[in-house]
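ZP: hey, is the magnesium ion complex queued? I don't see it on the tracker
AM: it wasn't, my bad. submitting now with these inputs:
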Amino acid sequence: SLSDSPEDAARPAPPPGQGEDNINVVVRVRPLSNKESKAKDNFVVQFPGNGQLLLEGAPLPAGSSSPGSGNASKSRLFSFNAVFEPGATQEDVLNYSGVRRLISMAVEGFSCTVFCYGQTGSGKTHTLTGPPGLFDGQVDPQSPDHGLVCRSFQFLFQQLRERSDFHFVLKASFLEIYNEKVIDLLNPGSARKPLAVRWSKKSRGFFVENLFTVDCEELDDLLAVLEEGMRNRSVGSHGMNDHSSRSHTILTVHIAAERQMSEDGVFISRQGKLNFVDLAGSEMTKKTHSEGKTLEEANNINKSLMVLGYCIASLSDPKKKGHIPYRDSKLTKLLADSLAGNGVTLMIACISPAKSNISESLNTLRYAARAKKIRTKPIIMMDPREALILSLKREVAALQSENDHLRGALRLNGEQLIGDPGAP
Ligand code: ADP
Ligand code: MG
């Protein structure tokens, strides 16, 4: 077959994920809430299958349109990488959202980001971390309520155990952006003195100065970071009932893969990253516009969310190749390496199925559909020595394959190889 030819073996191996979308967009539709059920709110979402979702429009007044006028229905059909119905479990989201591929890629050295986007109350926090109160008391790690973050951590450790060719060093941080102020969720004292976001020349990226980063040797260490941050988030929001709808949280796991060169030489060969982002409620951007706020006031409502929208709009429109305004907000600065096209992204759009929320749901689905058009070229954050090792490995594989090919050809001719290099 073609793939056995030496030319093919000499070609660089495609990076994982090539040929697949590097931005996956899935939708999760939560069940009707008790309040919605009690109010006899209608369920306006349908699931035709194959990643499709139909949002039923408001019924038109009788006789307002004739059949075939093209105006008979305002229902809208959307298509995504996957759609989760209200019956989907937290485990289903792990298994069918594509997050497993993201985690494997983070282990390989890519920058990977999972976002939850949607209006307040649509299920963002439920999807990422679980229902409210899960982290209030004693946390049961086996609880079926655990969200995608905890499940991803478990899967990450499975992956690491399978890669014995590297030694992995994990560090985690957990921050909140509220009113364009960065607060360290692992160091509640920072609420009084917000942290600065700075540019690092060395790593050519933005970073948060003095952010606590915790060494995580085991799964339990990562889970402790999650628990601690979740507790501080709810304590910090005391007395402000819309705090969580206005704030973004970013939980980051840095995954450094180290290679042993000799007895005493170790170097960091690849530097992967996994971000989990719980965004502010998407209704916030609308508030900014509808209330005719000045720029400064808009800052206080939600600059980061607005700028994220501009970035996604610019990235998804090939005609607008020019300026992408990453630098205009804290959130987009910190996610720039993922958004800028070097990373791999999973966006989970969360919606309510209720008719009373249909216009917010429509906004969310449109935003998600736009994000799906973004094309990125992820790159591995690799040490030059690692790149050399890989290219040498490929050369060896190519020579090996050429050799095998030759031997095969000689055998075909009925000849015997003398001094077979493969023989001991
Ligand atoms: P958001 O973070 O988007 O504001 P939440 O995650 O807090 O929304 O969800 C609002 C409420 O709906 C919570 O009580 C949550 O547990 C519940 N909920 C959200 N999604 C689901 C779901 N898929 N299944 C069951 N309950 C859900
Ligand atoms: Mg929330």
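AM: back. The first helix runs from residue 6 to 10.
ZP: great, adding it to the tracker
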